[in-house]
Each structure stands twice: as C-alpha cells, then as structure tokens.
Write a structure and sequence with these properties.
101 residues; extended
C-alpha cells in the first residue's frame, strides 16, 4: 500500500487499543496488526442476549492475553494451513456458508 493510501486509511479511522491505550493510527505497522472483535451475542450469551460486543486490541495485548492459546505457524510454501478472509473474530453462526473466503 502506498503512502497516500495509508494516509487515507488513517484519516478515516482512529482508535487505540482498548486495553493498553496504544495509539494505533500513529503507527502504520501497529494499525495493520490490530485485532478487531465485533459480534452479536446470541441467546444465553454471557455478554447479554443480542448485545453487540466490540473491541480493538493491539498485537502486544493479543499476545499477552491469548498467546498461550494461539497457534502461531511460520509462513512457508510447505504449510497446509489456510488463511481466510475476513480478518476478525467471528462466531460460526455469523458467517454464512456460501461466503467465499
């Protein structure tokens, strides 16, 4: 992505990590490594029935909070691990079966 596109992206978006308050748009690398969570809780959700749950976390907080449970796989041409779009956190019922990743 060129500098003009980077600047447009950062102008349209702003924010910080909800845990450590790192200013994400001030650092393009950190901005692209952020994790955004957005989903609607279902019936019986611990967050509340039909409540929307959102957060933005920097890569450092994700590693601190979830690192123990994340599978981190070196990228090379031999691995068979698919990488899907969209990038984000979703519950299985929120992704329609016909969506092309």
């Amino acid at each position: 992505m060129d500098d003009i596109a980077n600047n447009r992206l950062l102008e349209k978006t702003s924010g910080c990590c909800r845990r450590c308050n790192l200013d994400l748009p001030s650092n393009v690398d950190e901005w692209y490594e952020r994790i955004e969570i957005s989903f609607r809780g279902g019936y019986g959700s611990v967050f509340g029935d039909e409540y929307v749950v959102r957060s933005t976390l920097c890569q450092h907080c994700i590693k601190t909070l979830l690192g123990e449970w994340l599978e981190v796989i070196p990228d090379n041409s031999d691995h068979q691990v698919p990488v899907f779009k969209p990038v984000g956190a979703y519950q299985p019922y929120q992704i329609l079966p016909h969506e092309d990743f």
